Amino acid sequence: MDAQLRRGVLDVCVLAAIKNEDSYGYKIIKDLKPVLELSESTLYTILKRLEEAKMLVVRSTEFEGRLRKYYHITQVGLARIEEFKNEWKEMMGIYSFIAEDR
User: Fold this and answer.
1) What pTM value is reported for the model?
2) 46-58: per-residue pLDDT in tens?
3) Which of 3, 12, 60, 99 could staple 84 via S-S, CB 3.0–4.6 A?
4) Where are the domains of the chain?
């Protein structure tokens, strides 16, 4: 898969993982595991990029004596998911055209 396309897909997967509830790194990786393998280093790079793009916000909370970062999706992040779904419909149309036997 094209690196830029993969990057966009991974970003939206992470946003989708926190769409319904705030979450933290390990849980995001666990929630995405049935769909894709994601290393911690890749995840935290994605989370930082999404935070810089204002698609999520971060808050730290103490959990069992340690600080844990929780990620919350913003309206910008929710809009990106919707935008991606529309883009994907277009991509599926292109795929159908390419895959069609002529």
Assistant:
1) 0.86
2) 999 999 999 999 9
3) 12
4) 3-99
3-state secondary structure of 23: strand
Q: How many CB atoms lie within 10 A of CB 74?
A: 16
Question: CB of 24 within 8 A of CB of 14?
Answer: no
Dist. CA 71–CA 46, nearest whole Å: 12
> What backbone phi and psi angles, to 5 degrees, belong to 57?
-125, 155
Q: Quickly list DSSP for 44-86.
A: HHHHHHHHHTTSEEEEEEEETTEEEEEEEE-HHHHHHHHHHHH
Q: Determine whether 80 is exposed, middle or buried from the number of CB atoms within 10 Å of its CB (0-12, 13-18, 19+).
A: buried
Q: Which two tokens stand for residue 52?
A: 């810089």
